[in-house]
Write a structure and sequence with these properties.
Radius of gyration: 18 Å
Distance between the termini: 33 Å
CATH architecture: Roll
Helix content: 25-40%
Order of helices and strands: HHEEHEEEEH
Number of domains: 1
Low-confidence stretches: none
Structural class: alpha+beta
Length: 179
């Protein structure tokens, strides 16, 4: 492979991993567990701290219970640093993740600024997560919640929801739930 072909392949690989990262955010926010399963290798590890650390497929199995109190999930990735070694890559991915969760005292907001420490592997021509760990750098917590989706400024706006009732599924033809 020439230097130009190798550089082009790395650009293609970078873009595939960026897509993997952003689809993870969409699938997480929409509680699309079927789609999440397609993003990890079968032997992958997911480390979400005290919430869960172990096989990614087991984490996804537990997500309905973990996400049950979540009224809003909103993951945003910013800086993406990737390094490659053939069919193996590592990534440090900065994120802002907003969670609005039901509690016995009413809804609370948790805005986390952190990073994903990722390991990726390309198998059968496809990049997927091999190991994903979340690192919290800061958190901003409001209890009770300060989110106001009833404010007149939002009147008439479509309001996002976790799950298949999110307005994106009625709007898009190409972006779908599941695989």
């Amino acid at each position: 492979m020439s230097d130009k072909e190798a550089r082009l392949q790395e650009l293609l690989d970078r873009e595939e991993i960026r897509q993997l990262i952003t689809v993870y955010c969409q699938a997480s926010d929409r509680h699309d567990h079927e789609k999440l399963r397609t993003l990890y290798h079968e032997d992958a590890i997911d480390d979400h701290g005290a919430m869960f650390c172990g096989p990614a497929m087991e984490f996804i199995e537990k997500l309905p219970e973990i996400q049950a109190p979540m009224e809003i999930l909103h993951h945003n990735v910013t800086t993406i640093n990737l390094a490659f070694d053939g069919d193996y890559a590592e990534g440090e991915v900065y994120l802002l993740a907003l969670h609005r969760a039901k509690t016995p005292d009413g809804p609370m907001d948790v805005l986390v600024g952190g990073r994903y420490f990722d390991k990726y592997a390309k198998r059968d021509g496809k990049w997927k997560f091999l190991h994903r760990a979340i690192v919290a750098d800061w958190a901003n917590i409001h209890s009770p919640s300060i989110i106001d989706l009833e404010h007149p400024f939002l009147e008439g706006a479509k309001i996002g929801k976790p799950g298949p009732s999110d307005p994106s599924y009625a709007f898009f033809r190409l972006i779908k739930r599941g695989a």
